[in-house]
Amino acid sequence: MGQFDESAVIQEQLHQAQMCISNQEIEIERLKTTVIALNAKASVVDDHKDDVDRHKDRHDEHVSAREGLHVQITETRETVKVQQESHWNYQSELHSTGDQLKADLEAQKRHQDNREVDHRNEKERMSADHYNKQTDL
Question: Is 1 helix (H, G, I), strand (E, B) or coil?
Answer without folding.
Answer: coil
